[in-house]
Amino acid sequence: MMALWNTNEQGVVLGGYDVVSYFERNEAVRGSADHSADFEGATFWFSSDENRRKFQEDPTRFTPAYGGFCAFAVAAKGAAVPCDPRTFKIRDGRLFLFYNDFHEGRPLNTAVLWNKDERAMLEQADRNWETLTARP
Known about the structure:
Oligomer: single chain
Helix content: 25-40%
């Protein structure tokens, strides 16, 4: 399986949001390059050295599902679509992120669509993610 991350031009996952804060504070908190760590070819930013240390001790506990791409898009389209890092949910110890912006001139929050049949979406997303990250 190859690593596939939702990164910005600098290779920073989720545009620099602190993945530990989602779990510890249940909120999206911006991190800083002053507190960073590399994992599987990508850079993660944190809001504190304490969060960076927690991540380094157990990175897979904190990494977002589907590389931080929109969980709904992975399920419905089999596609790695950027998300809004402020639109998220934690379920069964996994961090899911969603697209939440305008699409074709109308507001679209894919978390709402995901929640309509979360179980089926989760199963399909897990299957599609395996295909997306399969080594050629």
